Amino acid sequence: MSIRHLLAAATPATAHVLAQPDPVSAYALTAGRLWSLVAALLGLAGAVVGGLALARSTGRIGTGNGRRGAVVALAAGLAGAVAGGLVVAAADGGPGTGYGIVGGYLALAVGLIAMALAGLALARSRRAG
Fold first, then answer.
1. C-alpha angle with apex 83: 118 to 71, nearest 5 degrees?
2. In Å, what is the CA distance from 78 to each residue of 13, 65, 72, 84?
3. By CB atoms within 10 Å of each CB, which of 11, 34, 85, 110 scores lowest?
């Protein structure tokens, strides 16, 4: 039983959101594409904040230790990666079908990068502090 069928069995509203029309335009914003876009933006925000926190922890920007930014980046990266993973797990088709699988994989990658940057920033802020 696929993840999509389990989600559809859990709530009827989920089944309605995940139901895709057969002919999907390449430019149509479907539910899967929207969720993958949100997940990718969360991961991107986490990567940017993680990069800034890493720069602060090395003393290149500002005077702070970057610990708070690293925690924010870790949370945003984790949220982006989890949401991207859910989009990929719920997708029934491949690229171009409207399920947002390409954006889901992108969100997974960017979320993992954000978490790695946040981990480096946390490790450096512990050594410095």
1. 20
2. 26, 21, 10, 10
3. 11
Residue 16 lies in a domain: no
Q: pTM of the prediction?
A: 0.74
- Please give the mean pLDDT across all residues of the chain: 81
Q: Which domain, by its residues, includes 60?
A: 28-128
Q: Is residue 4 part of a domain?
A: no
pLDDT of 30 reads 84
Six-digit token pair at 50? Answer: 């993680």
44-66 pLDDT, tens digit per residue, is 999 999 999 888 776 655 556 66
Within a domain: 15 = no
Domain membership flag for residue 8: no
Q: How many domains does the chain have?
A: 1
Residue 86 to residue 105: CA distance in whole angstroms: 10
Cβ atoms of 102 and 51 within 8 Å: the answer is no
